[in-house]
């Protein structure tokens, strides 16, 4: 007898839908069949779409940025994510500069994440690690953390990693089965004028800074035979240039992540009265760049949210330098993106991030033996986004009408969300192994 059966659903398997029954035992998918079998509990998914649980490879829960800490801790953030069909998140360790710091940083974040209701993992984060790359990579391998994030900016807080270390790290990726993640902005092109206001954000962090640095890092990736993952690409100009100049390494050695807000908003928001709510890095781009990004969606490998909200009071500051950067969207990311791209977005939130970040085939697919992470989606439901389950006191998507809605989320065979009600859950820490 199976623990749970999802009956009569339209299962998303290998890019197409099949009307089948899915059976779960001991947290795993045990059988997929058109036959009916006995199970302890059944869920009728007639006329519903059944997806693999979504993976958000880029969140910042409980992130301390000095004066402020992002609104959602690992409990509230994971509950909000579960309402959005997300069953796995990858957060970040606090920045380290030496190999000896990695394990302590991991233990600190793991302790905070114990209250997550969904599964979780972490990327190592480095800050100006002079002559420490080998030691950091050794620790990553020992601790089974195959991804490491660097910044090409934030020199003012000593978080920038310079070209010597970047190229050294890229040269070690393939032999060590690791992946470099990069926040890509040219530090020299960022204007930190202390007089800047919110409306000046596009001038402060100009589009050219992303474009120029992305092309440089793509050249490094190619020249040093490395693997790199660009986080939160913001501009269609950047994506178009990468497609034009580096088609041979895109989706092979150079991967691109973008975020829902770059597809849905433009830099025009910064001239509005509540423009401070949209302050993030990199910032929203022009309407032309947004449209170009939308048109080149096929070249995006993954959708991450970069979920990092701060309260409206914390963000409502006169000077740009005083505004904490970040917004939230884990609860709405799939619904928002699916409303634009339909089935084209599914792989970018399931099998795509699973393969790139070392979670496949445990996560990201509906297959026998994989974790029973499942989303049940009602394509006929229509609703208007209102308050959500984040602790943030505003939602930039509020008022948007959406057709189609996630009604239930299952993590390792247990309902976290059932018929739009929170049931509860207990996430697990995941080690990862990249398979290329």
Automatic annotation (TrEMBL):
Domain of life: Bacteria
Name of the protein in question: Amidohydrolase family protein
Annotated InterPro entries: Amidohydro-rel, Metal-dep_hydrolase_composite, Metal_Hydrolase, Metallo-dep_Hydrolases_sf
Cofactor: Zn(2+)
Domain Amidohydrolase-related: residue ranges: 50-414
Pfam families per record: Amidohydro_1
SUPFAM superfamilies reported in the protein's UniProt record: Composite domain of metallo-dependent hydrolases (SSF51338), Metallo-dependent hydrolases (SSF51556)
PANTHER family reported in the protein's UniProt record: COLLAPSIN RESPONSE MEDIATOR PROTEIN, HYDRANTOINASE/DIHYDROPYRIMIDINASE FAMILY MEMBER
Listed GO MF terms: hydrolase activity, acting on carbon-nitrogen (but not peptide) bonds, in cyclic amides
GO cellular component: cytosol
């Amino acid at each position: 007898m199976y623990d749970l059966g999802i009956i009569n659903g339209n299962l998303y398997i290998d890019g197409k839908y099949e009307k089948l029954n899915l059976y779960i035992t001991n947290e795993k998918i045990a059988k997929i069949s058109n036959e009916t079998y006995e199970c302890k509990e059944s869920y009728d998914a007639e006329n519903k779409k059944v997806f693999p649980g979504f993976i958000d490879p880029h969140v910042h829960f409980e992130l301390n940025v000095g004066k402020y800490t992002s609104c959602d801790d690992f409990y509230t953030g994971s509950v909000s994510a579960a309402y959005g069909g997300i069953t796995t998140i990858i957060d970040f360790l606090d920045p380290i500069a030496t190999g000896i710091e990695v394990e302590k940083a991991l233990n600190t974040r793991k302790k905070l994440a114990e209250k997550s209701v969904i599964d979780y993992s972490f990327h190592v984060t480095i800050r100006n690690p002079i002559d420490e790359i080998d030691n950091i990579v050794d620790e990553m391998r020992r601790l089974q953390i195959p991804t490491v994030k660097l910044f090409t900016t934030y020199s003012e807080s000593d978080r920038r990693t310079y070209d010597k270390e970047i190229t050294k790290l890229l040269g070690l990726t393939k032999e060590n089965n690791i992946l470099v993640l990069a926040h890509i902005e040219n530090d020299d092109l960022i204007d930190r004028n202390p007089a800047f206001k919110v409306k000046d954000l596009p001038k402060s962090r100009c589009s050219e800074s992303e474009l120029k640095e992305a092309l440089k890092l793509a050249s490094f990736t190619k020249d040093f035979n490395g693997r790199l993952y660009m986080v939160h690409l913001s501009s269609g100009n950047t994506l178009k240039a990468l497609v034009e100049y580096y088609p041979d390494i895109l989706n092979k050695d150079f991967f691109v992540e973008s975020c829902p807000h770059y597809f849905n908003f433009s830099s025009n928001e910064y001239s509005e009265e509540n423009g401070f709510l949209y302050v993030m890095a990199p910032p929203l781009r022009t309407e032309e760049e947004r449209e170009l990004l939308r048109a080149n969606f096929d070249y995006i490998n993954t959708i991450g949210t970069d979920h990092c909200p701060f309260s409206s009071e914390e963000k409502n500051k006169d000077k740009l330098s005083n505004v904490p950067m970040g917004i939230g969207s884990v609860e709405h990311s799939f619904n928002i993106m699916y409303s634009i791209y339909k089935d084209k977005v599914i792989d970018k939130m399931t099998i795509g991030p699973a393969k790139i970040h070392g979670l496949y085939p445990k996560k990201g697919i509906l297959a026998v033996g994989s974790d029973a992470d499942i989303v049940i989606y009602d394509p006929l439901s229509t609703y208007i986004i209102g308050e959500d389950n984040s602790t943030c006191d505003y939602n930039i998507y509020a008022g948007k009408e959406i057709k189609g809605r996630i009604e239930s989320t299952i993590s390792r065979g247990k309902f976290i969300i059932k018929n739009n009600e929170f049931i509860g859950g207990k996430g697990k820490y995941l080690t990862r192994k990249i398979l290329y």
